[in-house]
Amino acid sequence: MAEQVRAIRTRQTILSAAAKIFEEHGYQAATISQILREAGVTKGALYFHFQSKEELAQGVLAEQDQQFVIRSSACKVQEIVDAVMLHAHRLQTDPMVRAGVRLSMDQLTQGLDRSGPFLRWSEVGLALFQEAQGQGELLPHVVPTETAGVLVGAFAGTQSMSQAICDYADLATRVSALMRHLLPSVVVPSVLASLDLSETRGATVYAEAFRPVDELVGAGGTA
């Protein structure tokens, strides 16, 4: 058991180091030697968990989804908003997420499949838009597959613009504006009026999603 715990910690240390190096240098310029120095582990330890730089990058890309937790909402459009705003908040606060986004957005990257995050986000969006449609939350003309793709693409461009201008400092403001401009074209007015599209929504959702279970129980909630 102790060895298993150490292995898990070592893997996480390596991933965190790789995320830092990938974010600072990009995939092409980053080297295994830089990651080894940052992680403070041996080459053998690194290759035990990851066989190549590509595997390291894919590990970083996958890691950003591991703690992606959204509490279910009766209103599925609010759940969509919460997912987007939470990701914006994590981009501002989580180095692993920032590194994953840099990898996925880096068009100069060669030899790395960058499609994973876009496909996963599209799948999440599609499922939620389909549920929203089933509950009568969307306007009649909406095609969930198309709308999910538009939202993912619009968010990708918005976060890229924010990163270039001010290193994500205004991302919550920009994403709130994106939601306020995009949703009226797909959501019925009665649902639209009930949504929380505020700039602080991502931080609120994050705080709720990661509240300790005992705190929730103590407050009369359910785990």
Structure description:
The protein is mostly helical. The chain folds into two domains: 2-63, Arc Repressor Mutant, subunit A, CATH 1.10.10.60; 76-212, Orthogonal Bundle (Tetracycline Repressor, domain 2), CATH 1.10.357. The protein contains twelve helices and no strands. The protein has helices spanning 2-29, 32-39, 43-49, 53-63, 76-93, 95-105, 115-134, 144-166, 171-182, 189-192, 201-209, 213-218. Helix 1 (2-29) packs across helix 4 (53-63), helix 5 runs antiparallel to helix 9 (171-182) and helix 5 crosses helix 11. The radius of gyration is 19 Å and the shape is elongated. The two termini are 27 Å apart. Mean pLDDT is 88; it is low at 213-223.
Annotate the secondary structure layout.
Blueprint: H1 2-29, H2 32-39, H3 43-49, H4 53-63, H5 76-93, H6 95-105, H7 115-134, H8 144-166, H9 171-182, H10 189-192, H11 201-209, H12 213-218
Helix pairs in contact: 1-2, 1-4, 1-6, 4-6, 5-6, 5-7, 5-9, 5-11, 7-8, 8-9
Could you name the key traits of this structure?
single chain; mainly alpha; 12 helices; 0% strand; Arc Repressor Mutant, subunit A; Tetracycline Repressor, domain 2; 223 residues
How far from one another are the termini? Answer: 27 Å
Strand-residue proportion: under 5%
Number of strands: 0
Annotated CATH topology of the largest domain:
Tetracycline Repressor, domain 2
CATH hierarchy class name of the largest domain? Mainly Alpha
C-alpha Rg (nearest Å): 19 Å
Structural class: mainly alpha
Report helical residue fraction.
over 70%
Task: Calculate the mean pLDDT score and round it.
Answer: 88
What's the architecture of the largest domain in CATH terms? Orthogonal Bundle
Global shape: elongated
Number of domains: 2
